Description:
By secondary structure, this protein is α+β, with helices and mostly antiparallel strands. 17% of the residues lie in helices and 35% in strands. The longest helix has 22 residues, at 2-23. It starts with a helix and ends in a 15-residue tail after the last strand.
Amino acid sequence: MNHTYRILTTFILVSLVVIIGCSSNTEKSKDGGDEESGTELALDETYDKVRNGARLILNHNAEDNSFIGTVENTTDETLKQVRVEVHLSNGKELGPTPASDLKPSEKRPIQLKATSTDFDGWTAHPEVGTDEHRDSEHEQEGGEHDKEDNNEHKREGGDEHK
Length: 162
C-alpha cells in the first residue's frame, strides 16, 4: 500500500507541475510582449515599440486619415518578411504592408491609409517572419479580421498594396 501511495503521489505532483508549466506558457514575442498587447492608443498618441527586433514608430495623420511612420531593424541580423498592421477600434484592420527583409539598422517608411472614419482608437504591431500571419490568410474572406479596402493601403512611395 505504501508503494502505491508513493507512485500515486509522484504522479499527481508531476501532473501538477506539467499543468502549471503549460498554463503559464502564453504566446510572447522574443522581446517579452504579447502577440498583440491590446493597449489601444488615442488618435493623437504615438506607437513606439520593439517587437522581435523590429522597432515600429507610427502616428495617425488626421489630415489624410493615414498612419505614417517607420519600421527599423534593431538587431545585428537581417529580419525576414517584415510587415506592419494597424487595428482600428471599429474592428477594421489596415495591412499588412508588403513583406520585405530588413538588413541590420535598415529603416523603411510605412504608410497605411484608412478609408473609414468611424474609429477613435488604434493599435499596431510589426510582424517578422512567416510564423505569424501570412498575406494569404489576410486575403481570405470571412477571416478573423474585417479588412479595409485593399486599394487604399499604400506602400512606401505610393504603390498600391496588392
